[in-house]
Specification:
The longest helix is centred in the N-terminal third of the chain and has 52 residues. With 144 residues, this protein is mainly α. The protein is 44% helix and 8% strand.
Length: 144
């Protein structure tokens, strides 16, 4: 009788090895199914963030053009939105961006170019930092 009570009390105190292994197997299956989906959503969020930042920079460039009468040159770059460029005599009423110049979600500066036709290009090279690519590695740019 005493032995029976003692073994029942021991079983009530903890889990058996098989119970722990079953729980670990279930957690492993859940991590294998849910993990990739969560990580893919994280990557998509970075691309969306870059697209929003590019749109904000594009709007700031438009304000610069309204004040100064032209877009910043390629040499002046996006720094002209934060500090008055040397070639601007009057009209600059910036800074046109809050804080410092943004970097893309992959911690690289946005590339800026003033085209000969007067349009501007703002580009992030995506996750891989190289031109071209697909998915998260695709280049992101303003749509003008």
């Amino acid at each position: 009788m005493m032995r029976h009570r003692l073994s029942r009390a021991r079983r009530a105190l903890g889990f058996t090895l098989i119970e722990l292994l079953v729980v670990l197997a279930i957690l492993g299956l859940l991590a294998g199914l849910v993990g990739p989906r969560v990580l893919s959503q994280l990557g998509g969020a970075k691309s969306k963030t870059a697209a929003l930042q590019i749109a904000d920079i594009d709007k700031a460039l438009e304000l610069f053009k309204l004040d100064v009468g032209r877009f910043p040159t390629t040499e002046e770059g996006l720094a002209a939105l934060a500090a008055k460029p040397a070639g601007v005599a009057a009209g600059w009423s910036g800074p046109y961006l809050k804080g410092t110049l943004p970097v893309d979600p992959w911690a690289r500066p946005y590339q800026y170019k003033l085209n000969p036709d007067g349009s501007v290009e703002i580009v992030s090279l995506g996750a891989d930092g190289a031109p071209g690519g697909e998915g998260e590695n695709a280049d992101l740019r303003n749509t003008r």
